[in-house]
Amino acid sequence: MKRLFQHYEGEIQGLIGKELKNLKSLHDKNDNDVILIWLESGNSWFRVFIDGVYCGVDEYENDESIYDVEEDDDLLIEHKKWVNGMTINKAKVESWVLPEIKLTLELSSDTKLILKCDKNEFCSLNIIE
Q1: 71-113: pLDDT as tens digits
Q2: Which of 22, 55, 57, 66 has the least C-beta neighbours within 10 A?
Q3: Which letter does DSSP use for residue 68 in this model?
């Protein structure tokens, strides 16, 4: 694992230019709170999360998303293969008042993926086309 980014604001240079193959979101089955996302690009997987203090991006050689789910968890991994072939043009983290943090990924298709956590640390993944 290699840490690419850990801050509450700024550009994530390590994601810019990456062509996506897959997106996985890990969320709570009960309230749809998004815990984190995994992005596949080339021979790497990127684990992206917001923990209330910062946004973190870690690079892995293999898909290790299964280790984020335990058998007794009420968590669900959802695959979004439609991102296949899209390139990340911009990756920006913003924060106004912690723990409110927003990550915006602008893709080559004019699609935006927004991972946003509110003041209660409830996170959602929104897709804007």
Answers
A1: 657 888 888 889 999 999 999 999 989 999 999 999 998 999 9
A2: 66
A3: G
Of the candidates 70, 24, 68, 28, the one whose C-alpha atom is nearest the C-alpha of residue 45 is 24
- b/e map 18-34, b = 16+ CB within 10 Å: bebbbbbbbbeeeeebb
For residue 85, the tally of other CB atoms under 10 A from its CB is 11
Residue 51 has phi, psi (to 5 degrees) of -115, 15
Q: Are the CB atoms for 88 and 79 separated by under 8 Å?
A: no
Contacts 24+ apart (CB under 8 A), 100-103: 101/8, 101/50, 101/52, 101/54, 101/55, 103/12, 103/48, 103/50, 103/55
